[in-house]
Design brief:
The chain is mainly alpha-helical. Helix content is 76%, strand content 0%. It has a two-stranded antiparallel ribbon with strand order 1-2. Helix 1 packs antiparallel against helix 2, helix 6 crosses helix 9 and helix 19 packs antiparallel against helix 21. The termini are far apart.
Length: 804
């Protein structure tokens, strides 16, 4: 069994080796045969048997192939024998045909000789006829000349004259009628010259009247050709890089789709009605006159006359009407006349040879361009309406694109547009200044109330506000900013759109447009919005609550500046990370406004404190206090508590600064009340009453009306009053005088001059109220103590003044 399995395994191997021998090159047979001897011991014998069987098979196949093709060979020999007989018959027929052709050719030769003799006779007859009728063509051509002149075919008439003079008259110059004809030709030429010049003058007058129509058609065609690509570009700008909060993108995209559809419909309607300058103007008088003068050899005279007249017309066209700046139609008429003039010149340049040259048209255009720029620069300065400036810009762009399409250089016009762009931005800034003022005037400076999900989404769609805590609150709820914030944000975006409208079609890169938009937006923020905010903050009717809301509003507007930068990026497709990209200055703008509002809060808060302090009505000679704080002071403290509750929405440092400023101002006001020069006398009871009021101030400071103060920081605002009143309440003058000037002194904050002023007022009161003081020992001792302390305090004050 093992041997049988081994034999079965070698058979496929032998077949593979035989296939390799048959299919490979003879040089590779050696390794193949070697593998036969490297296998099992009996493999060689079995391989040889297999090889013999393969050879016998190939022999059988060769025999079959030979038997198959042998019958075909025999058939081919049989057919060849049959063809030999037909070939002999064909040879006989060809020989017979050749003989018959030779016989027929003899008759043709005889007939050909007869034809030659007839042709010679015919030529001789024709020569005789030409000599006899030599004068007839001259008469016919002269008759033709008269007919052409009568039909006003002057150029053809001149060509006929040339033919008569150069071809026909020399043939019959020996006859008298020929000389008479020659004498009439110069007069006829002059008449043709005058008539053609008259037609040219009529043509020049006609194109002067129709220049505006020609220009209007050319500008309309240029605008239609460009509108399709412009709308596509707008669509790309609106679709790429959309932001979640750029809510106007979908509206702009839909608007562009509508405009694009409208443009395509217009182009489809007007496709069969495209007019060219040839359709509007008949140039045949120019061609005819040019050809006539060229034929007469006076082409230079015609060229000089034409150029001179056209320069005069150019000066008339370039002179605008005085009211051109009042309406867009005035500018449009001005531009269409100029375009019509140069479209005609461009047509003349391309269809005539040498009447006008490129150098001539360029010189004429440069002269016209200087005049146009001067006119536009002068008249555009009168434009105060941004819409009018924008329409003027669009007209200039169409004007420039139209003439650029005819090969004229218009770079200076686009440079002028950059000057007009600055003026456009100024008019926009003035317009938006009024818009901002109206928004601020109509604002109620209260948080925006929201009663439903729909109202919430409306506000979010207008302003990029994100606050997870507010979203979690149930309705009704309030946004922290007032109604002016989303309105201001929307108007800033509208300003960017308005600024973008001018930047379109200026043949500038996206980077330059991005830089223009950012710079103009920065001007709006730093000059207009900042100025409006500062003016608003300084208005007298703006109270503390409104100032607090303004600070909150500026904070949210400052946070929204990054969304404005994204908005500009989406429009221009220029990344903010690109080098030299201008950043928006909203951070500094709103920070300055916020600082101004904070300063105004401090000022108004102090003014309010002064109003309360002015209501103070102390009885400075009272014998003893009422036992409770003054009413005005309690009202003031209640007012401060309510105000500081409003300050909870402010940044912590602002509220703390306002609270500290108010306490310091109150302390200073109370101190000034004690030291007022008009106050001559103060009793001990009044001091006790004043001390009760200061205690209420200290209690207010210790109650932490604004969170964030450390320890007794706020109470230190009243430390000067506290030490001064403690000194008078305890009457501890020995300690004060002994420790004066020491860092650890109990009354370190009490100034000798302040103590002396107050003590002198109490001294005068003591003298006045104690008439019988000399009869009581305690009063006498007290009076002596006061006098002694006064003397010592005066010494300290004198010493301080000497050291200073």
């Amino acid at each position: 069994m093992a041997e049988g399995g081994e034999a079965l395994g070698t058979v496929p191997e032998h077949e593979r080796i035989l296939q390799e021998i048959e299919s490979t090159d003879t040089a590779c047979v050696g390794p193949t045969l070697r593998s036969v001897y490297d296998d099992q011991p009996n493999a060689h014998k079995k391989f040889m048997e297999k090889l013999d069987a393969c050879i016998r098979n190939h022999d059988k196949e060769i025999e079959k192939m030979c038997n198959f093709h042998h019958q075909g060979f025999v058939d081919a020999i049989t057919e060849l024998l049959k063809v030999r007989a037909d070939a002999e018959k064909l040879k006989v027929q060809v020989t017979d045909t050749n003989r018959r052709f030779q016989d027929a050719g003899k008759e043709v030769i005889v007939q050909t000789e007869d034809i030659i003799r007839c042709r010679i006779q015919q030529r001789n007859i024709t020569t005789v006829v030409e000599k006899l009728q030599l004068c007839l063509p001259v008469l016919e051509m002269y008759s033709k000349l008269k007919e052409q002149v009568s039909m006003k075919r002057y150029y053809s008439a001149l060509k006929t004259m040339e033919q008569l003079e150069n071809v026909y008259f020399p043939r019959v110059s020996q006859y008298r009628f020929c000389q008479l004809m020659i004498d009439t030709l110069p007069k006829l030429r002059e008449d043709i010259k005058e008539i053609s010049m008259s037609d040219l003058k009529d043509f020049l007058e006609s194109i002067r009247k129709h220049s505006d129509k020609i220009g209007e058609t050319a500008m309309k065609q240029a605008q239609q050709q460009k509108s399709f690509s412009v709308i596509l570009q707008k669509q790309n700008n609106a679709r790429f890089g959309k932001n979640t909060h750029v809510d106007n993108d979908s509206i702009l995209e839909e608007k562009n789709d509508i405009v694009l559809k409208h443009v395509l419909e217009e182009e489809a309607e007007n496709e069969e009605e495209v007019l060219t300058v040839q359709d509007l103007v008949d140039f045949s008088p120019v061609y005819r006159c040019l050809h006539i003068y060229s034929a007469l050899g006076d082409e230079e005279t015609f060229e000089n006359y034409y150029r001179k007249q056209r320069k005069k017309q150019a000066r008339l066209v370039l002179q605008p009407q005085s009211s051109v700046h009042e309406t867009v139609d005035g500018y449009r008429r001005y531009f269409t006349q100029i375009v019509g003039f140069f479209v005609v010149e461009d047509h003349i340049l391309h269809v005539t040879q040498g009447l006008v040259t490129r150098a001539y048209t360029d010189e004429l255009w440069n002269m016209a361009l200087s005049k146009i720029i001067a006119v536009l620069r002068a008249h555009s300065s009168y434009c105060t309406d941004p819409d009018l400036v924008l329409e003027l810009k669009n007209l200039i762009v169409i004007f420039a694109d139209t003439l650029q399409g005819y090969g004229f250089q218009v770079n200076r016009l686009f440079d002028l547009l950059f000057e007009i762009r600055d003026q456009y931005n100024e008019t926009l800034l003035k317009k938006w200044a009024g818009i901002f003022r109206d928004i601020f005037e109509e604002d109620n400076y209260s948080p925006i109330p929201i009663g439903s999900e729909e109202e919430y989404k409306v506000v979010i769609s207008k302003f990029p506000f994100q606050d997870p805590d507010l979203e979690k609150q149930s309705f009704p709820k309030k946004f922290p900013m007032s109604q002016s914030v989303p309105l201001i944000y929307i108007q800033v975006k509208e300003f960017i759109y308005a600024s973008l409208k001018f930047s379109e079609s200026l043949h500038r890169s996206s980077t330059e447009i991005d830089d223009m938009l950012r710079k103009s937006t920065n001007l709006l923020l730093t000059r207009i919005l900042s100025s409006c905010l500062l003016n608003l903050i300084r208005k007298p009717h703006i109270g503390l609550t409104e100032l607090v809301q303004i600070i909150i509003n500026t904070t949210h507007l400052e946070q929204a500046c990054k969304y404005l930068e994204d908005f500009i990026t989406n429009i221009t497709n220029i990344s903010q990370e690109t080098a030299h990209t201008t950043r928006l200055y909203g951070l500094s703008t709103f920070k300055d406004a916020r600082h101004a509002a904070e300063g105004e809060i401090y000022t108004k808060l102090n003014q309010k404190i002064d109003e309360f302090v002015q209501l103070a009505d102390y009885d400075w000679t009272m014998a003893e206090s009422d036992g409770r704080a003054s009413g005005y002071l309690m009202d003031l403290i209640n007012f401060l508590r309510s105000i500081f509750q409003v300050f909870t929405h402010l940044p912590g440092k602002v509220a703390q600064t306002a609270c500290m400023s108010a306490c310091q101002h109150l302390s200073t006001s109370l101190m000034q009340m004690l030291l007022d020069s008009e106050l001559k006398q103060i009793s001990m009871g009044a001091v006790q009453q004043f001390n009760l009021d200061v205690i209420q101030c200290e209690l207010f400071a210790s109650s932490e009306p604004v969170p964030g103060f450390q320890g007794d920081t706020l109470q230190l605002a009243f430390i000067d009053l506290r030490q001064l009143l403690d000194l008078f309440m305890v009457w501890d003058w020995s300690t004060y005088l002994a420790d004066y000037g020491q860092p650890a002194s109990k009354y370190l904050r009490v100034n000798p001059h302040t103590a002396l002023t107050l003590l002198e007022k109490m001294k005068d009161t003591s003298k006045k109220n104690n008439i019988f003081a000399q009869f009581r020992k305690n009063d006498r001792d007290r009076q002596k103590l006061i006098e002694t302390v006064v003397k010592q305090l005066r010494g300290l004050v004198t010493g301080m003044s000497q050291h200073m």
